[in-house]
Amino acid sequence: MRTSLNELKAIDDHLFKRSSPADQTVFQARMILQPDLRNSIALQKQTLWLVEQYSRRALKAEIKEACDQVKRDPCETAFIARIRRLFR
Amino acid sequence: MKTATPGTTAAGRPYLFRMLYKSVFPSAAAWIARRGGTFDEAEDVFQDALLVYYEKAMAGKSTAGRDEKAYLFGIVKHLWVRKFRQRITNVTFEEVDADLPDEVISREPAAEVLLQHLSSAGKKCMELLKAFYYDKLPARQLSEMFGFSGTRSVTVQKYKCLEKVRETVKQKALTYEDFLK
User: Fold this and answer.
1) What is the pLDDT of residues B128-142, one digit of tens each?
2) Per residue in B140-175, is it b (16+ CB within 10 Å) or e — as a string?
3) What is the ipTM of this complex?
4) Quick check: B6 pLDDT over 70?
5) Which of B33, B47, B162 is opposite residue A64, by nearest beta carbon?
6) For residue B8, what pLDDT band results from cuts at 50, 70 and 90?
7) Which residue of B has its CA nearest to A12?
8) Chain A residue nearest residue B50, CA to CA
9) Which helix (H) or strand (E) holds B37?
10) Whole-angstrom Cα distance, residue B123 to residue B117?
């Protein structure tokens, strides 16, 4: 992999604690010596948080569709009506 | 009761969600109705709770020694308390599980804009990153799913995608604090 991708992998390994103790020590030393590395770590965390949010939205849509299937099922009409009556 | 185990496949999930909706939603809805919630609010909170329940089960954190129904119901109560705190009257904190995320789905405007952009302009990359980081699928499966020549290509492509998304985030000039609150 090219250098920039190896840097992303090193940050990934640090964030997910996949590095060896020796590599962790080297990485921590780099964090002290290279202030830009801290910004790069923050940016990667932010990116991974967005991936999590994207993934959760996809799963929520899947859950909603499963619930809607129950609501659309003619066999479940009485079940849904019973729940809706709770809110009157 | 069937539980969400790490072996639960994407194909098996709709069945699991339908089954949990039918078995737990009635009691959760009754609990929320007694606290002044609407049907739509109850459903939204219940669906968020299902998401949290599923994440915890996939991480192997939820099921051991617990009553699954009560556990899911506990998550519903907890999320309701957080979302509609001002309406809460008779809930004690003993009733809820504290080990849950602060916010299941963020509605932070900056994140909304960025996610909308990435969902259209970088969909394939987002799907690959989702499959790797969220679904935690093995490289061999990712290779088949995305049509790569092998697991090595998956790894390289994953980091290329990460780089691309990172660059988008950077270009949008959002600060870390903008949506990591």
Assistant:
1) 999 999 999 999 999
2) eebbeeeebeeeeebbebbbbbbbbbbebbeeeebe
3) 0.89
4) no
5) B47
6) low
7) B159
8) A63
9) none
10) 9
